[in-house]
Amino acid sequence: MLGIHPGDGGSVATVDIAGAFPGSPVRLTFHFAFDERDRICTLTIRP
Questions:
Q1: What tens-digit pLDDT sequence spans the chain (47 residues)?
Q2: pTM (two decimals)
């Protein structure tokens, strides 16, 4: 994980993923939104 910070209604994490796949390594951004019980209710992953 490269970093995590507050985002619109949740948190944003930036991660580098590497492996045996075309385009490796790739940097992905995970956008998390949480419900009233602090459970993830929405997850969006973007390059």
A1: 999 999 888 999 999 999 999 999 999 999 999 999 999 999 999 99
A2: 0.82
SS3 25: coil
1-27: burial string, b at 16+ Cβ within 10 Å, e else: eeeeeeeeebeebeeeeeeeeeeeeee
Q: Compute, in degrees rounded to 10, the torsion defined by CA atoms 39, 16, 26, 33.
A: 20
* Cα–Cα distance for residue pair 16/20, rounded to 1 Å: 14
In the three-class reduction of DSSP (H, G, I as helix; E, B as strand; rest coil), residue 37 is classed as coil
Q: Copy the structure tokens of residue 39.
A: 């459970």
